[in-house]
Amino acid sequence: MNAIIKLTVFLTLLAGCSAVAAAVANDSPYHFGFKKSRNGLPASIDEEGFKEVLSKHGAIFMADSSKKELYLTFDNGYENGYTAKILDVLKEKGVPAVFFVTGHYVQTQSELMQRMVREGHLIGNHSWSHPDMTQISDDRIVNELNRVKEQVSLLTEQKEMNLLRPPRGIFSDRSLAVSRKLGYTNVFWSIAYVDWDVKQQRGWKYAHDKVVSQLHPGAIILLHSISKDNADAMGSIIDAAKEQGYEFKRLDQRQS
Q1: Radius of gyration over alpha carbons of the chain, in Å?
Q2: Which residues are within 8 A (CB) of 110 and not within 5 positions of it... i.e. 6 or more apart?
Q3: Which of 75, 173, 195, 229 is catalytic?
Q4: C-alpha distance across the termini of the chain, in Å
Q5: To bridge 218 with a disulfide, which of 63, 79, 114, 205 should be the other Cys (CB 3.0-4.6 Å)?
Q6: Average pLDDT value for residue range 93-98
Q7: pLDDT at 254
């Protein structure tokens, strides 16, 4: 009888694993990309093959393109010594931001996260272990997101979390659906540049020019706080944007 029970359990587990594998195999991944803004015109995803998928699940890559508003966001996978300086500038300039954090950041940077919340910023979800969301099961997606949310709630005064940036900008119809059921809005971006390679920093003016040249109404700006260039250019980027008549708002203040 024990052998029969063990066989039944084994077959049940095997069937479950097969179902997960089939779901993952049939889950077509997309890699987020966009046409950059030029001369102040809005960025575009009209030529990408995923526009309808984003719309279907309420995901965003920019806000209202009729308003001269900007939304500053950072991805924080690990700390490289520059986030405090960025926070200093944001506080001085009165600019809010969203910091999307991973499990590693949660485990190692509680003081910085507390400061983010204390100074009026939002913490968003960047997953616990930064996996390709299209290659893991629904249950694992839920676990990845819940762990970040729960730990941020324990470590800071922020008790809710409903903004998510998929790791590496990889997503699918399934991953968007699972995260949306948890109450998340998937947030992509309409301004970005290659700033995450710490061995390829080129100076504050390079960062300044890369960001300011792409400014457009309703833009969601993606930056990485590990970049020294970004930290050094933060003040000048904000000043240049304000001189052009832009206002910085937090993502939860947007009007779609």
Answers
A1: 20
A2: 155, 156
A3: 75
A4: 61
A5: 63
A6: 98
A7: 83
CATH of the domain at 69: 3.20.20.370
Q: Where are the beta strands (DSSP E) in the chain?
A: 30-31, 69-76, 97-101, 122-125, 163-164, 170-171, 185-186, 219-224, 247-248
17: pLDDT strictly greater than 60: no
**223 SS3 class:** strand
Tokens of 12: 């049940």
- At 118-140, the pLDDT tens digits run 999 999 999 999 999 999 999 99
Global pTM? 0.90
Active site residue 224: yes
What's the residue count for the chain?
256
Average pLDDT, the chain: 92
Amino acid at 59: A
Considering the candidates 57, 126, 208, 224, report the single residue annotated as catalytic: 224
Residue bearing tokens 């939002």: 122
Give the residue numbers spanning the domain of 120.
2-253
Q: How far is CA 146 from CA 14, 149, 156, in A?
A: 26, 5, 15
Type of residue at 256:
S
As beta bridge partners, residue 224 has: 75
Residue 192 phi, psi dihedral angles, 5° rounding: -165, 165
Question: Minimal CA–CA distance to 158: which of 192, 193, 125?
Answer: 125
The residues near 203 (Cβ < 8 Å, ≥ 6 apart) are 229, 232
Residue type, 226: I
**Domains of the chain: total:** 1
Whether residue 65 contacts residue 44, with contact meaning beta carbons closer than 8 Å, is answered with no
